[in-house]
């Protein structure tokens, strides 16, 4: 059903950057939704396909010929795909760039509202993406004890825009003044987690207003993955925690965590990183896993002598 918005966009040359990887059905749903909203009438829609192997590229070419596509090598992750998309948009003369995750479906008029406010106030503006039953709300928050603290509940849609220190990357409008002042997001060390938080926090600290816009609502899938799990989650063994230090999929991926802590907290961030590693070791001792493994190894060695 056609639900084209009657909102207008004051900005020219708006680009919507959508990073994707092996989520063909989710990507198709997002683009179909944008088509119903009539977004292609006022924005360039750019999909950064990071080496999908599930037929995403052929689906894009066949079903969505109005979408521009740039390809990655399966090693970009979220932050690399966003950076490549922003570079492409800036080379195309973008005046405003929107980050949009493919599992996020903006309500009618939400994108236009974000873009207009971002241009009008020279601010980075983030929408409010709610999962079913408000299981999780992607929006933004503040830094508390050198750690990002997100909003506990979704603000009312009728509430006025308000300042925060950082934003989730699901639905964010970024005017040209932002990247001209602070550059692009880091993508070498922070491959997935923290890249959106660090970039918007960096802009906030550089004097660029960072706003949550409650009127810009969206529906989002709940990302029930280790990216958001606590180490106390029973689904994680100590070996999962240990392996996560080398996996960009999780928030405690060590290169990304170290970069984030140093970039946002300086020398104090080093203490935080040491404490995270100590906590992991203590968790292993508490669960008794290393001790059991060590005992098993000793017994096996004795049996071979």
Describe, in plain words, how this protein is organized in 3D.
The chain is α/β, with parallel strands linked by helices and 305 residues long. Helix content is 40%, strand content 21%. The strands form 2 sheets. Strands 1, 2, 3, 4, 5, 6, 7, 10, 12 and 13 form a 10-stranded mixed sheet that branches. The protein has a 3-stranded antiparallel sheet with strand order 9-8-11. Helix 7 runs antiparallel to helix 9. The radius of gyration is 21 Å and the shape is globular.
Q: Count the helices. How many?
A: 10
Please state the structural category.
alpha/beta
Percent helix: 40-55%
Q: Which overall shape is indicated by the principal axes computed on the Cα atoms? A: globular
Radius of gyration: 21 Å
Gap from first CA to last CA: 75 Å
Proportion of residues in β-strands: 15-25%
